[in-house]
Write a structure and sequence with these properties.
The complex is a heterotrimer of chains A (428), B (344) and C (313). With 428 residues, chain A is an alpha/beta fold. Helix content of chain A is 43%, strand content 18%. The longest helix of chain A is centred in the middle third of the chain and has 38 residues. Chain B is an all-alpha fold and 344 residues long. Chain B contains 14 helices and two strands; from the N terminus they run H-H-H-H-E-E-H-H-H-H-H-H-H-H-H-H. Chain B has a two-stranded antiparallel ribbon with strand order 1-2. In chain B, helix 1 packs antiparallel against helix 14, helix 9 packs across helix 10 and helix 12 runs parallel beside helix 13. The model of chain B has no long low-confidence stretch (mean pLDDT 84). In chain C, 71% of the residues lie in helices and 0% in strands. The chains are: A alpha/beta (428), B mainly alpha (344), C mainly alpha (313). Chains B and C meet through helix 1, helix 6, helix 7, helix 12 and helix 13 of B and helix 6, helix 7, helix 10, helix 11 and helix 12 of C.
Chain lengths: 428, 344, 313
């Protein structure tokens, strides 16, 4: 199978006032092209931090301190992947929302309360599909001018068309330059000598600077009076936004763009969040507990929606949840996390049939089953404090099979049977 | 639609508050003995004690308070505010002379205060705990610790006294000659505007030259509050979930700061801008006194020294009204920026 | 970081210290770590020492120690010398003496006004917040009225109405200052009133007064005290402004605002030395600025540290 993204030994720390929270302790996961991948664990085990590290949006005071996050995109050579931790912020901005996007657990707070729905969805188009939008606008303007009868507005439209063309030209030039930098960066990807590292840093900085120039140019569009020329562009984008909302089953898609988040129900808000994420047809959709604060019926709707979308428009889904039932229903493969460690990775069937890691076993035993008569079991002890995490395997203080070595060294992730990886000394 | 409803509701509420203001001004006035209050009804310059006693009787200044209050309101609505000794003219006429001077200063200073405060506050929040942040913090602390009157004096001492630039007053003598010549038509009584309308650029620059120090004085002192609040509310906004959504969308830092965070961060700033405006009006009294600008503030200060009761009461009433109207505008802007408020 | 919070709570339970004391100690430690706080603290302590030992630092001559002694009637100020360490104002009023006794006056004004404000504010705020209904309505509408007029403008009018002078200034500041505290106290009480432990106390048959004094005030007093400490600076500043405008103490009184007012004629020196009278302009205003700065630094830091919402940022 074709790999899409791989996190290799990622360490992420939060430097808080109370101390350093070691939230990720060398997590490794691989998401393949076209699969639905689950990430399960109790709250606070680092699921969210893992995916945020993958998108490089860990917010201060958090920082990724080690590891590699490799991206395998069709644009460039798929062989070794691109380590996005070495890339500039501007590069990440072109990836986020475009190739990888994300939906969040709490839709009501994930939407900006003071911006209209229309703008929030349109922004995805503005950020990543501006060239297409400009082309379309120019085409519609052309068509209008040709069929138009009005003399004065015709001039205005021609003027608008000229400006849009200029903007498009500038944008294409920028895209070319960026593509050039990215190609060179990819060539330098694995070289470790000083000269190429210097060049890499230089190129990364150059890319950031380029983006800044673009921003300054775009500011012109916000100036009073001049900003009116952009109206046509906004109309084009609005059509796309309405189409997208229709596709996602938002009722009344004509009016919703003018509404504000507080005017929508929780389920609708979550659909808007999904719309924002899907605007640019990402290759990977990361869903961070997308249903945890919704009513049960709406939960089902959203899950169905994601399933449908998976079959139609998105390549892969990385699904985060603490609900094992959902995992069984949706995912192809799954990783179980505990306190910043990835304990076990397997195909869903294998995991439920034959859980190997003691934590996975405990987790599965603590889930209510339809037929079982006996009492539910829980895992003794509590989740450790990650400022002073247990040495070695972080699960060892609660593990019924703990050996001496467990408290000394962190167990490596090894392949137990085909596609079934596990980090536990019981199996080495 | 709902915005218009909201505005109508706020205007109705404003009428109630204005009633409260008039009540307060009246209560302050009632502390003053009737002999001095009589001045409100006087319209000529010289008056004898016997006449005063007669007038107290005539206008019933020793009547019960509620009766007097109603009568006073009637007076106000008929536009009679009495005679001001300090202006040597009826209060209304004094107001028409002095108000444009103050308005001019407000018009120049307020946008600058807001811009400087918001800009520096954003800067501090974006570069939290970096040198820029510390610098803005020091600026803010100095800003709200320095006495207005002292800073004004120092500015004058350094720029006017030592460097010989930016003199106090509102126009040079040469400019005043032109100003009072019949050729110069006064349309708005706002000097810089009139100068442009008369196409007298030398007057325009002259007036602007005199505006620099008072404006700087007001900016230094009043932008501090906005700065501090903007910084903390910007920090709060930057920590919200929707910023994460914007990040995940691929928005760059500038877009996030300028569009996603700032609009939200402005909400608390707008709510306190009423307090700020009150400070500005107070600061205006002192600034005009120091820089000898013949505006409402200086008039008020002189009136207070000379027990010019009609002028004081009128100004308190006027500034109170301005303040209440300003708060109404603030509420409307608030509702415009934050769509949630309109539903309440 | 849910787990950290949980663990922190566990740790707290382990240590057998009263949680409020624990919190207080934690806050105090943070409070004292901030260099700006230390500067503020040093400034205020210095001023307090000057105020306390004023009779020793600058022995008074006449019957009223707040009257600055002046040696002669010469209009031009004299520069710093052995007799006048900080120089003199016009009519030879000694600046050093004025600064020292002005400190004492500033504390007197600041503390008197803020204490009176607090007292009125707490009583009215508690009444409005705890009983609600008509009492609340009346009190809050009165505060609204006070808020509707710019502070300094209202103060000027009221001073004129009462009759100029230092006493009038203090009375006016007391009359106009309380609404802030009333609002804050009322707001805090409205939140606290619905808290479970208050409901429990009420269900247990505690009287209203007892609930207010025993349960509600101790919990809401922090934020009010922080505001009060910041307000001492503001009050002194406003009093000085009124004095500067000529509405406060009369000429020759050891009042900083009055001293700044006396310096107004001396911002421009003679032609050969434009800054000749710098000491007249700089010193009194600088002292006011330092005094206000000290309180602001303290209040600012206290708000950052003791306000749980601002903490851990």
């Amino acid at each position: 199978m074709q790999k899409l993204i791989e996190a290799r030994d990622v360490y992420t720390n939060f430097f808080t006032f109370e101390g350093v929270v070691k939230a990720l302790n060398g997590v490794s996961i691989i998401v393949n092209q076209g699969e639905t991948y689950g990430l399960v664990g109790e709250s606070g085990c680092g699921k969210s931090v893992t995916v945020r590290s993958i998108m490089r949006i860990v917010q201060s005071p958090g920082r990724i301190v080690g590891g590699k996050i490799l991206l395998f995109l069709s644009r460039e050579d798929k062989g070794q992947g691109i380590d996005i931790l070495k890339r500039s912020e501007a590069y990440m901005e072109s990836i986020r929302g475009n190739d990888i996007s994300m939906i969040f657990q709490e839709a009501s707070t994930s939407l900006n309360p003071v911006l209209s729905i229309g703008y929030q969805v349109a922004e995805s188009f503005l950020l990543h599909r501006l060239d297409e939008m400009l082309k379309e606008t120019i085409d519609t303007l052309k068509a209008e001018i040709e069929s138009g009868k009005l003399f004065i507005t015709g001039w205005w439209k021609k003027f608008q068309g000229l400006l849009f063309k200029a903007e498009l030209k500038g944008l294409e030039r920028y895209t070319d330059m960026v593509a050039g930098i990215d190609r060179r960066l990819y060539e330098l990807e694995d070289s470790t000598d000083k000269i190429s590292i210097d060049e890499r840093n230089h190129l990364n900085r150059k890319r950031d600077r380029l983006k800044k120039t673009v921003f300054v140019v775009q500011c012109v569009r916000h100036l009073p009076f001049i900003k009116h020329y952009g109206k046509k562009l906004h109309k084009t984008i609005r059509i796309h936004v309405i189409d997208l909302l229709k596709e996602l089953g938002v009722p009344n898609p004509q009016n919703v763009p003018d509404m504000y988040p507080h005017e929508l129900s929780g389920g609708m808000q979550q659909r808007i969040v999904i719309a924002i994420a899907l605007a640019c047809h990402p290759k990977l959709l990361i869903a961070d507990e997308p249903t945890s604060n919704l009513d049960v019926t709406i939960q089902a709707q959203i899950i169905d929606l994601i399933k449908n979308l998976k079959s139609t428009s998105i390549a892969s889904v990385l699904f985060i949840t603490h609900d094992l039932g959902l995992v069984a229903e949706m995912c192809d493969r799954v990783t179980v996390m505990y306190a910043g460690d990835a304990c076990e990775t397997a195909a869903v069937k294998d995991l439920f049939k034959e859980p190997l890691h003691p934590y996975t076993k405990g987790l599965l035993r603590s889930v209510p089953k339809l037929k079982a008569q006996k009492e539910l079991e829980s895992i003794p002890g509590t989740v450790p404090n990650l400022i002073h995490p247990p040495s070695g395997c972080r699960f060892h203080p609660r593990c019924p099979h703990a050996k001496d070595i467990c408290s000394e060294d962190k167990p490596p992730l090894t392949e137990h049977s085909e596609g079934h990886f596990i980090a536990c000394y019981l199996y080495t | 639609m709902s915005l218009i409803n909201y505005i109508i509701r706020r205007i109705l509420l404003m009428v109630v508050v204005l009633f409260g203001v008039s009540l307060l001004v009246f209560s302050i006035m009632m502390i003053i003995p009737p002999g001095q209050r009589v001045a409100i009804y006087v319209t000529q310059e010289k008056i004898s004690p016997a006449q005063i006693n007669a007038m107290i009787k005539k206008y019933g200044l020793d009547d019960p308070a509620p009766v007097q209050y109603v009568r006073w309101l009637k007076q106000i609505f008929s536009g009679n505010f009495g005679y001001s000794i300090t202006a040597s003219a009826p209060v209304i006429k004094g107001f028409i002379t002095y108000f444009p001077v103050t308005l001019e200063l407000v018009l120049y200073a307020t946008p600058l205060i807001i811009l400087v405060g918001i800009w520096l506050g954003t800067l501090g929040a974006v570069h939290k705990d970096k040198p820029v942040d510390h610098a803005t913090r020091v600026f803010a602390i100095i800003g709200y610790s320095l006495p207005t009157f002292w800073l004004g004096l120092i500015l004058l001492m350094v720029f006017y006294g030592y460097l010989g630039i930016f003199p106090p007053g509102y126009l040079s003598n040469k400019g005043k000659n032109i100003l009072f010549s019949p050729a110069f038509k006064r349309y708005t009584y706002i000097l810089t505007v009139d100068a442009v309308l008369n196409w007298r650029w030398n007057i325009f620059w002259d007036a602007l030259y005199h505006l620099v120090l008072p404006t700087v004085n007001l900016i230094l002192l009043n932008s501090a509050l906005i700065l501090r609040l903007m910084r903390s509310s910007m920090l709060e906004a930057l920590g919200q979930d929707y910023i994460r959504t914007a990040l995940a969308k691929g928005a760059d830092k500038r877009t996030i700061h300028n569009i996603h965070a700032r609009r939200n961060a402005l909400i608390p700033v707008i709510t306190i801008s009423g307090v700020l405006f009150a400070g500005l009006l107070g600061g205006m009294v002192i600034t005009e006194t120091i820089f000898a600008r013949d505006g409402i503030g200086l008039w008020m200060a002189r009136a207070a020294l000379q027990m010019d009761v009609p002028a004081i009461m009128f100004n308190v009433l006027f500034l109170g009204t301005v303040f209440v109207v300003f708060n109404l505008i603030v509420d409307v802007v608030y509702a415009y920026i934050d769509p949630r408020i309109r539903l309440v | 970081m849910n787990e950290t919070v949980v663990n922190e709570r566990e740790e707290k339970e382990k240590i057998a210290v009263h949680p409020r004391l624990q919190e207080f100690l934690f806050s105090t430690r943070r409070f004292l770590k901030n260099p700006l706080t230390i500067i503020g603290l040093v400034i205020i302590i210095l001023f307090a020492l000057i105020a306390v030992f004023a009779p020793l630092i600058a022995p008074p001559h006449g019957s009223d120690p707040y009257r600055i002694p002046h040696t002669g009637w010469k209009m031009t100020p004299s520069p710093p010398s052995d007799i006048h360490p900080l120089g003199t104002l016009e009519q030879q009023y000694d600046i050093f003496y004025g600064v020292v006794w002005g400190t004492r006056l500033a504390f007197r004004i600041g503390v008197t006004v803020v204490f009176a404000n607090l007292l009125i504010g707490i009583i009215l705020g508690a009444l409005a917040g705890y009983y609600g209904g008509i009492a609340d309505e009346i009190i809050m509408r009165i505060t609204d009225m006070f808020y509707a007029i710019p502070f300094l403008v209202a103060a000027m009018a009221l001073v004129v109405a009462i009759g100029r002078g230092l006493k009038a200034v203090i009375i006016v500041l007391i009359i106009l200052g309380w609404p802030t505290y009333t609002r804050v106290i009322r707001g805090e009480i409205l939140v606290l009133r619905e808290k479970d432990y208050i409901l429990a106390a009420r269900a247990g048959g505690a009287s209203s007064l007892r609930i207010i004094f025993k349960h509600i005030l101790p919990n809401s007093i922090y934020s009010v005290l922080i505001i009060a400490s910041m307000n001492i600076g503001t009050v002194v500043l406003t009093a000085a402004a009124l004095s500067f405008l000529g509405l406060g103490s009369e000429t020759g009184y050891a009042d900083w605002g009055q001293m700044v007012a006396m310096s107004r004629n001396w911002i421009v020196g003679p032609a050969d030395n434009r800054l000749a009278f710098w000491y007249v302009v700089i010193i009194p205003g600088f002292v006011i600025a330092m005094f206000v700065l000290g309180w602001n630094l303290l209040g600012d830091a206290a708000r950052d540290v003791f306000d749980p919402k601002m903490r851990r940022r």
